[in-house]
Amino acid sequence: MMSDLPRDRFDPKMMSDLPRDMAEEVLSRLPVTSLREVRLTCKKWNRLTKSQSFLKKHIAKKKKQIEVVMMLESRVSLMSVNLLYPCVERIGNLDADQIDISKIFHCEGLFLCMTNSGLVIWNPYLGQKSWIQHRNSYHRWDMYALGYEKKKTSKYSKVLRFVNNHDPDVNHRICEFEIYSNSSWKVLDDLNLDWAILFNHRGLSLKGNTYWYAQEKIDLDGPPVIRDLPGFLLSFDFTTERFGPRLPLPFHAFFGDTVTLSSVREDQLAVLFQKRGVSGYTVKIWISTKIEPNAVSWGTSLFLAVDMNPLIGFQFDRYAGSFFVDEEKNVAVVLDKDSGKSRNIAYIIGKNGYLKQVDLGESRNRFCYPLVCSYVPSSLQIELGNNLI
């Protein structure tokens, strides 16, 4: 079952005179969702909880448990996952300012959020937000990615906005590519666009770059036509601001198959594959041994293969299937809806037909799929320019 954890309570007056090491030890036990209130208590704690020593201690303590970020029914929360006695507990809401978030994109502790008011980059750990300058217009097929440019010891956040889709309303292809950095949008030209990414497929940001599952596209002047050719990984390098070469997958996937991406330890890529129309509905997961914008290597064996037919009897939705893996316990947690599309469910799957289901609550919008991503707090400053709050 899913439940809300009780809020942590502490008395600031009793702790105000504690030595720094002791205060750091106590405060580092609090969840990231409580740090905002802590920092508002006094300047001393504000400085302490933003220090590198505090961050390292905070992360070390959280490694003892599984904490992930989930988006359920437009609500973004930090969750604790117990795989031994399967349950998912809400630690607290991350969207403390009650911003109406419709989509999120994650990159090393930072989130790009789509809201009714526009786009905002957000670091929940530092409580830092930076609103992105409005464009004159947006398109309903807009897709986004969050990454960063590497400059020696610094990282500068960037946002990619693109649309490469046939719009039936105007009966022609819309093709726009822009990068947001230094408080302005810049158009990208001279791009190779012989690929297609399904609109609802979120990319995965890893080590500052973004990866998508893509397929070949032909007839660029008309509606997109997908050839019956295997899909591939497509990368975008935020330092060079260019798409990389097609990268191979460890399987042959075609239109209609379920393919989703996840990260492992913030430095490896995991891919889930489930073939459409096959009676077994077998879920297969691989983990990369190397991943860069221009190269990928896969292990010699599967991380996991599970026949889902006797367990749930249906294919994970190709627009859903958001997941993460636990290498130590050799299981995967896949988020989707139930067969009736009325409940959000976490499916915990493992070897030898292992399956546990955790009900995450009612699904009020059948087109709003649950999302999960790994989360490690980051002290990375949002370097976009102005509008920092």
Provide an overview of this structure:
Residues 12-58 form the F-box domain. With 389 residues, the protein is mainly β. It is 9% helix and 45% strand. The relative contact order is 0.13. Residues 385-389 have low confidence and may be disordered.
Summarize the structure.
The protein has 389 residues and is mainly β. Helices cover 9% and strands 45% of the residues. A hairpin with a 4-residue loop joins strand 3 (75-82) and strand 4 (87-93).
**Count of discrete alpha- or pi-helical segments spanning 4 or more residues:** 5
Strand content: 35-45%
Strand-pairing-aware structural class: mainly beta
Cα distance spanning the termini: 37 Å
Low-confidence stretches: 385-389
The coarse silhouette is: globular
* Main sheet characteristics: 6 strands, antiparallel
The value of Rg in angstroms is 21 Å
Number of strands: 28
Average pLDDT reading: 81
What share of the residues lie within helices? under 10%
What descriptors fit this protein?
389 residues; mainly beta; six-stranded antiparallel β-sheet; 5 helices; 28 strands; globular; disordered C terminus; F-box associated domain type 1; SCF_F-box_component
Give the topology, please.
Blueprint lengths: L1 E3 L7 H4 L4 H8 L7 H7 L1 H6 L3 H11 L3 E7 L2 E8 L4 E7 L7 E7 L2 E6 L2 E6 L4 E4 L11 E9 L2 E14 L4 E10 L2 E4 L7 E2 L7 E3 L2 E10 L6 E2 L5 E6 L4 E2 L14 E7 L3 E7 L7 E11 L2 E4 L5 E4 L14 E5 L4 E7 L5 E8 L4 E8 L8 E4 L15
Parallel strand pairs: 1-4
Antiparallel strand pairs: 2-3, 2-28, 3-4, 5-6, 6-7, 7-8, 9-10, 10-11, 11-12, 13-15, 14-15, 15-16, 15-17, 17-18, 19-20, 20-21, 21-22, 21-23, 24-25, 25-26, 26-27
